[in-house]
Write a structure and sequence with these properties.
634 residues; alpha/beta; six-stranded mixed beta sheet; 16 helices; globular
Length: 634
């Protein structure tokens, strides 16, 4: 990764034309000398070492029966799978990053062999190396190569060499089994080629093993006693083929670990690094078990988001029948050692709930543990998930017998819910239980917070209110009643040993105005707030209805009619039109294109507000008009 000095994409000034050079994207990339004494930061030795460390710490051990991992020193190993060579360091397209080199798994294991930690059967990776090079030469890109059939004579030689095999899988495919409905949409040539290529490589969609990979797995299982799987993947994939398979005792999710990812995976399988990562997704048995699958690629023009708040673990932990579909839960991850956690106490401090948790390494190896706190919020008028992640923390490297106390802080804003009809965030009255554990399933009650009445904490405006009610996933009231009873039983059993906390409701309000003030302003505007009817001044609530949309269109309990969605929409459009009239042509250009005078922001460049984001729009209108810059996903 070389240093960029200066690049000009157009003359600086030619007869009053635009000075395009200052917008050259490369001028704003972190490969510039940003460190002390002009030292390059990105791509430096320190950052490469950090990349390797981060990759290792993020890997998740999901299966390890009979302590198959880590490999004992000097273990003879046979490496199977084109992923041994065809390593995917990260995303493609706009997610790609230029690096000085990429170290694959074979290269990482060779470094371990040079140190006497393992002994490799080299003929297998040499076979894959030759095959992958041929596929690259034919136009294939990393992660989009085909699994070749391994010659039987090589398998026989490998079997004679060792009884331990590591199968490595890599993938950077396209959408999950692309299916485009015929709506008169004409595919671009590139789209057609991508869909055809994806379908030819991932015959069952890239969620599942390809036919070639499945055949290779069966061949390895039939010939080797100890089969270890290393997954070089960037997202959720099928885990059913190894979850309950006795012939596969160990599985490591190595993800896409960057330029040193292959060596980082070798660090973990040989025991140099004890895995301490946790799953950030729920791994269900089939692709159809995810609710978004039903509407995915339903149309090229729109997407139905009907999951509401029930996304990921919130769906699988809340919606009836979903929990049984989970192979590996959110937050799950094994270690080469064992830990004990003990809640030492909880308190409210400076608007946060602080939970103290002691973690002790009770095993025989040094390691780290991640403690997670979930909140079970009251089931009131607003829909809630059964539990939500509100805090987590990782210990330092603990030696056997060593302990550390984590102070995990839960901001009360994470306990709030959004009331669509009134456009407010609020904490509903009731009990908030804090559950501490090491995954979304492995938790125990640690503290309870009680709020006597509902508090509206922040008042907003619905700029684009819904015109049609959404058909959203709904939990069953019967289930909520059962969970409420389970929580009360847990509380009765533990209330003598865990704290009961209370909050000052005034400290929860963030916008500095009373609920009555904000409600009048949002309904009638600043100048007409004094004309609000008595019921609005008193902050009367709407009659309870089955949906927020109906609720907002209903009447106050005192009988006064409330604004309908159409009226709110009209007001919002008037505000938008008024803003558009105020903007100069230059400001409109900045709003659309992300370019603003005196600013480094351009769409497609790395975001400044949120480091790591793909880009953002302009922030030049924030101070003058209150129009915030938007962070871009891609």
């Amino acid at each position: 990764m070389g240093r960029v000095r200066k690049a000009i994409c157009a003359p600086e000034n030619t007869g009053g034309k635009l000075k395009m050079g200052k917008w050259q994207r490369s001028l704003y990339q972190p490969v510039l000398p940003l460190g002390k004494d002009g030292k390059r930061v990105t791509g430096s030795a320190e950052h490469i070492a950090l990349s390797r460390k981060a990759a290792g710490e993020g890997m998740v051990l999901v299966k390890n029966e009979n302590e198959t991992l880590p490999l004992a020193k000097g273990t003879k190993v046979a490496l199977f799978g084109k992923g041994t060579i065809d390593y995917v360091k990260g995303g493609g397209g706009s997610g790609d990053v230029t690096v000085e080199y990429i170290r694959n798994f074979y290269e990482g294991m060779k470094i371990k062999e040079a140190k006497g930690e393992v002994s490799l059967f080299h003929e297998l990776p040499e076979f894959y190396e030759k095959n992958v090079k041929e596929q690259y030469a034919a136009g294939a890109v990393p992660g989009m190569t085909r699994e070749p059939e391994v010659p039987d004579e090589l398998v026989t030689k490998a079997k004679a060499y060792t009884d331990t095999a590591i199968c490595r899988f890599s993938g950077e495919g396209w959408d999950r089994k692309c299916q485009i409905n015929d709506e008169g949409y004409e595919l671009f040539e590139d789209e057609k080629k991508q869909i055809e290529l994806s379908a030819s490589i991932f015959e069952n969609g890239d969620f599942c093993l390809t036919n070639g990979e499945a055949a290779m797995v069966e061949k390895v299982k039939a010939n080797f006693k100890n089969v270890i799987v290393v997954m070089n993947v960037g997202g959720m994939v099928d885990t059913s083929w190894f979850k309950d398979c006795k012939e596969i005792p160990a599985v490591l999710m190595a993800w896409q670990g960057g330029m040193e990812g292959g060596l980082a995976a070798a660090d973990v399988v040989t025991g140099g690094v004890n895995p301490s990562g946790k799953l950030v997704d729920t791994y269900a048995a089939t692709l159809e078990d995810y609710p978004s699958t039903e509407n995915f690629h339903k149309s090229v023009y729109y997407v139905d988001y009907n999951e509401d708040i029930y996304v990921g673990y919130r769906y699988f932990e809340t919606i009836p029948g979903a929990a049984e579909k989970v192979n590996y839960p959110f937050g799950f991850g094994l270690s080469y050692t064992s830990f004990e956690t003990e809640v030492l106490g909880a308190e409210e401090k400076d608007g946060k709930i602080v939970v103290k948790v002691a973690v002790t390494n009770t095993g025989k190896r040094a390691g780290k543990e991640v403690v997670q706190i979930y909140a079970a919020c009251p089931f009131g008028k607003l829909k809630k998930e059964r539990k939500r992640l509100v805090a987590f923390g990782k210990t330092a490297l603990l030696q056997p017998g060593e302990s550390e106390t984590l102070h995990l802080k839960v901001p009360t804003v994470l306990l709030e819910s959004y009331r669509t009809g009134k456009a407010v965030y609020c904490m509903e009255a009731g009990d908030y239980d804090f559950l501490v554990g090491t995954s979304s399933r492995d938790v125990t009650l640690a503290a309870r917070l009680t709020l006597d009445k509902t508090v509206e904490t922040e008042h907003l405006t619905n700029i684009c209110p819904l015109l049609d009610a959404l058909k959203e996933i709904q939990p069953e009231e019967e289930k909520e009643e059962r969970w409420r009873a389970e929580r009360e039983q847990m509380w009765e059993e533990k209330k003598a040993e865990i704290p009961l906390l209370f909050l000052d409701e005034k400290g929860l309000i963030r916008d500095g105005k009373s609920a009555e003030e904000m409600y009048k302003i949002l309904k009638f505007g600043e100048t007409n707030a004094a004309e609000a009817k008595e019921c609005d001044a008193n902050g009367c609530e709407f009659e309870a209805e089955t949906t927020e949309a109906k609720e907002d269109a209903g009447n106050c309990k005192c009988g006064a009619e409330q604004p309908k969605w159409e009226e709110r929409r009209r007001r919002a459009m008037e505000k938008a039109a008024e803003l558009a009239r105020k903007l100069t042509p230059e400001e409109k250009t900045a709003l659309v294109c992300g370019r603003s005078s005196g600013s480094k922001e351009i769409i497609g460049a790395a975001a400044v507000t949120v480091p790591g984001a793909a880009g953002e729009t302009t922030a030049s209108l924030l101070e003058k008009y209150g129009v915030a810059n938007v962070i871009l996903a891609d």
